[in-house]
Amino acid sequence: MPYFFVTLLIFSSMEVVSKPLMPFVDPFQLTFHRFLVGLIFLFLFLVARGRCHDLIRIGRHDMLLLAFLGFLNTFFAMSMLQAAVKNSTAATAATVICANPLFVYLFSLVTGDESFSWRRIAGIVAGMIGIALVMFDQGLRFDVGVLYALAAAAAFALYTLLNKPVARRIGSLPVNIVSFSFGILLSAVYLLVTGVGVLPPLEVTNEPARLAAFLYLGVVVSGIGYVTFVKTIRALTPVAASVIFIVKPALATLFAVMFLGERLSALFWPGLLFVVLGGLLILRNAPSQKVDTH
Fold first, then answer.
1. Which of 24, 22, 27 minimizes the C-alpha distance to 79?
2. 110 by DSSP, 3-state: which?
3. Domain ranges of the chain
4. How far is the C-alpha of 18 from the C-alpha of 40, rounded, in Å?
5. pLDDT tens-digit profile of 230-281?
6. Which of 167, 173, 163, 165 is nearest to 51 (CA)?
7. Which of 94, 201, 231, 272 is surrounded by the most beta carbons within 10 Å?
8. Distance separating alpha carbons of residues 268 and 261, to the nearest angstrom
């Protein structure tokens, strides 16, 4: 259980810590550096466990899938989440990204991995109502940040589904190390082609508080957070560990109000409640499957 609470705190802090950096750094650039630092940490963790041979065993077919997973998660989903943080409040981005169980269930229905359930359909409806309330919490003024967060949630849901079978075969730690590597490479190409550049801006590196936040996102969120999440899955099962993403919106919202002084409208709170309720309805009584967390 200690790993559960540590992971919850780390994951809930991501949007709040990154929000003050967004005026100074491109969302794709921040994602690139966050995962680069996280990748170094995870590789050192793999070496410390003496599991480097797991990387050598990965076949060509799996390598192509891992490249696609890197595009989905590291390059696209997490960059869209940073764009959501930039264009909306930290609380809104944290709430909408945690609607990803809705997309997981919808994708699973399409692929036949899940059967039809009225309870889970009710969860989808509740979640969509919550997203609509958050999207229009300022009246008729549309919150474009919600669209970025929805794109992130959908991409991360597809990543979750595609990740499971390959993680069972070769272990989730090698899967993430290799997929992170492909995602980082894609991010570097994108940043160079668009002229943004891969080096962090001086406005970040020359200011101690911003640099500390920058490093925190890489070492703590993308590195330590992943390790504690893996240990949570090992101790509790993946379904139980996924409760983190149900509790996260409430805790992230509390952090946003406390540390960023964000003012949230009256519609945001019922929206948050509906999103959490939707996730609970979808995850409740979901089958528990052990995952190899090497």
1. 27
2. helix
3. 2-283
4. 20
5. 777 667 655 555 677 778 888 898 999 999 998 888 888 898 899 888 888 8
6. 173
7. 94
8. 15
